[in-house]
Design a protein that fits this description.
By secondary structure, this protein is of the alpha/beta class. It has 28 helices and 24 strands. The strands form 4 sheets. The chain has a 7-stranded parallel beta sheet with strand order 3-2-1-4-5-6-7, sandwiched between helices. The chain has a 6-stranded parallel beta sheet with strand order 14-13-15-16-17-18, with helices on both faces. Strands 21-20-19-22-23-24 form a 6-stranded parallel beta sheet, with helices on both faces.
Length: about 725
């Protein structure tokens, strides 16, 4: 029976490098097994035929242009992000489940943790991961273990990756692993001997710092000066930006265009590449020394061997294992490189010896051999599950901003469809509309436990589940107490201290009907960016209303810092407090802010040091100006701004509100202004220039919410 296989990877076939060739090759090898129909997700519109043409010509392969608007509600994209690729995998699999799904790329794979039914049919090939167990945090180890245990197969390029996975997930059985070494086209029968080839060297691939491409181009004139008939053919057009060398792209392009004896052909179809390899004496695969500990090896050395040419490559344990310690063209520095390159171009016997070793290695990695292996793997694949029922969720509340991202992610799973009952306030809503929407849905989800949960607990239908999310202010309202608790199936709290406080107030509500699920942080939107020069002297707050946010404490800290350093300032992002109508109607709140502004304007040291930045969807960019994000509140349930600040590299200073040290256990919690000032003044400014990566359990949050919605449903 023909299997349906979906292939999705981070490489873009509009750019030629080893990873994009890998993606093309696994599609062709799977098709040639004669046991599968292949859907191949294109990361960008298929425009260049160098790699796409063979896929287009294969009757068993369908290219899915992932950028088309039909997948994204009418919006078209030039190129898919990795999270969008994962989202598309889930959509396609939900509509018509696949027998097997090939995934390349850690970020794509991690997104699939949210849909275990899809993950369990995935073949994961991950090389963009740390290759030493010591480089993984405990949270990363947990994620990798879940990936390994949740997928169907782990495709490993070398036994080194197998060893790494077994360290990450000791419970994995041997039959989970399949060696998937690089693949090259079937070898031609009659290759020209080295002695009959011209003095030509060749490089085909990407241009990148660790690939030593700029160094090889710059060294070529020394060889060409000695060997006037020599020629260096260079193929490829993907020049990477290098953070440590801002001029890298310009310098690399200049070397390609102007180096004497170097013939830069740009991107070429694979057939043209093979032609040049088969007419060259030696291929170049010298890498930086820091690449020597890698457990993966380059497809290029196989392509060089398959074309019958020798190759210059680093001496390391992997290459010695593959080619033997006596391989004659190892090079680990510029001196070695020049010596071995001249030797390969001048000594046919040595070059032929290297070529023979590489050819013997290449013969074990041909497309035909790999197709046979994939055919066996497909025989092991069980049939896919039946398509699942979409669960309809009614989302009700007056303020849904904290749920918007969760909703998007849940919808992307293909398991859920949302209808919205937008309330105008805590109790104000269109009752006719609410009753109409109620007839259509399986689950009601109340965002905030306010008038919405009171109404729905008294109006939901017998076959429906009612779930709610409790933030903090609900403890100060009567609505949950006035609800029908028997009709409430579950309440999720955003923090443990909020749950404890609520259950103390609403005595008798069953603990068994509650859980703690933190807010969902947008790790795609909030990312580390380089800080501005003044960030190390800039305090920040996101939102300063109501008065319980304690802007006065932030001003106290700012004043204390300005006593010894006039460079400090405070930036406030969000709606101005006096623009809130409800606030102006509450005398205590209004007087508080009047006093705040009088204080700012009448204090010379503060007057020009407090900056109000307008609200907008640019908070990640705003954080580039902010070194320290403050949480001086009297109380918070979670405080999203702290998490968002951490994701962008800002340093939190949190006052000791109830539960602060539990919600943010690894961050600085202070008791007063003096302690905050001391912490800040002792902080190393250089730490702000470094990207700070944090492992928020966003996938776990999503899984828990999805599990709540699915509970009791016949899937």
């Amino acid at each position: 029976m023909t299997k349906r296989v979906l292939i999705c990877g981070n490489p873009d076939l509009n750019y030629i490098d080893g990873s994009s060739i890998w993606a093309q090759t696994i599609a062709l090898a799977t098709s040639q097994s004669k046991k599968a129909k292949v859907d191949f997700i294109a990361k960008s519109k298929p425009e260049r035929d160098e790699l796409f043409a063979p896929l287009k010509a294969d009757p068993n392969i369908t290219i899915v242009n992932g950028t088309e608007s039909k997948f994204w509600g009418g919006a078209a994209y030039r190129r898919l992000s990795l999270s969008m690729m994962a989202e598309l995998v889930i959509k396609l699999d939900f509509e018509n489940p696949y027998d097997a799904i090939v995934i390349r790329g850690l970020e794509i794979a991690l997104q699939l943790l949210n849909t275990p039914d899809t993950l369990e049919r995935c073949w994961l090939y991950l090389t963009d991961i740390p290759q030493n167990i010591s480089d993984y945090s405990s949270e990363q180890r947990k994620e990798m273990k879940r990936l390994g245990e949740g997928c169907n197969k782990l495709l490993c390029q070398t036994t080194g990756f197998v060893k790494l996975w077994k360290e990450l997930a000791p419970s994995l059985s041997d039959d989970k692993f399949k060696l998937y070494t690089p693949v090259i086209p079937d070898l031609p029968e009659n290759l020209t001997p080295i002695a009959d080839r011209p003095q030509t060297a060749v490089y085909a691939g990407k241009f990148k710092g660790d690939w030593m491409t700029l160094e090889m181009a710059n060294l070529w004139p020394e060889i060409h000066a000695k060997l006037s008939s020599s020629n260096l053919v260079v193929i490829g057009d993907k020049i990477h930006n290098e953070v440590e060398n801002p001029n890298y792209v310009k310098d690399m392009k200049s070397a390609l265009e102007s180096t004497k004896g170097l013939n830069w052909l740009g991107a070429q179809p694979r057939e043209v590449v093979q032609h040049h390899l088969q007419n060259a004496r030696v291929g170049l695969s010298w890498r930086h020394e820091r690449m020597n500990e890698t457990v993966e090896y380059s497809t290029k050395i196989l392509e060089y061997g398959g074309a019958g040419c020798a190759a210059i490559l680093n001496r390391n344990s992997l290459h010695e294992q593959l080619l033997g310690v006596d391989y004659p063209l190892f090079a680990n520095n510029e001196k070695d490189f020049l010596e071995k390159l001249e030797l390969a171009l001048c000594d046919s016997e040595i070059a032929q010896q290297a070529s023979t070793s590489l050819k013997q290695l290449a013969e074990r990695h041909t497309l035909s051999e790999r197709s046979k292996e994939i055919s066996k793997w497909l025989d092991e694949v069980p049939p896919p599950p039946k398509a699942k029922k979409v669960i309809k969720i009614l989302l009700a509340g007056h303020d849904l901003k904290f749920f918007t991202l969760l909703q998007k992610k849940l919808e992307a799973s293909g398991l859920f469809e949302f209808v919205i009952d937008q309330w105008e306030g805590h109790t104000k809503h269109d009752e006719v509309k609410s009753k109409s929407l109620l007839k259509e849905v399986d689950v009601i989800f109340c965002e905030w436990c306010l008038g919405n949960i009171r109404w729905y607990s008294k109006n939901k239908l017998p076959n429906q589940r009612l779930i709610a999310r409790f933030h903090a202010q609900e403890s100060r309202t009567p609505y949950l107490a006035e609800s029908n608790w028997d009709n409430i199936d579950h309440i999720s709290f955003v923090s443990e201290h909020t749950r404890k406080e609520a259950l103390d107030i609403f005595k008798g509500f069953p603990l068994s009907k509650t859980s703690v699920i933190p807010n969902y942080l947008d790790t795609e939107k909030f990312t580390p960016k380089r800080k501005t020069g003044e960030a190390c002297f800039t305090l920040g707050m996101v939102g300063v209303a109501p008065m319980s946010k304690r802007l006065d404490r932030a001003l106290d800290l700012l004043e204390a810092l300005l006593e010894s350093d006039e460079r400090f300032c405070l930036r406030i992002k969000g709606k101005h407090p006096l623009d809130y109508g409800w606030l102006l109607n509450q005398e205590e709140e209004r007087l508080y802010y009047q006093n705040i502004f009088e204080r700012i304007n009448s204090t010379p040291s503060l007057r020009y040091k407090v900056i109000f930045d307008p609200p907008g969807d640019d908070v990640n960019d705003w954080f580039t100006m902010v070194g320290f994000i403050l949480s001086p509140s009297d109380h918070e349930s979670y405080h999203m701004a702290i998490g968002e600040g951490l994701l962008t590299g800002s340093i939190p200073i949190i006052w000791d509100w109830k539960g602060a040290s539990t919600v943010w256990p690894n961050q600085k919690v202070v008791k007063n202004t003096s302690e905050a000032k001391k912490f800040l003044r002792n902080f190393e400014v250089t730490e702000l220039t470094q990207n700070r990566t944090l492992n928020f359990e966003t996938n776990e949050v999503l899984e828990k919410v999805a599990s709540l919605l699915l509970k009791g449903m016949d899937s």
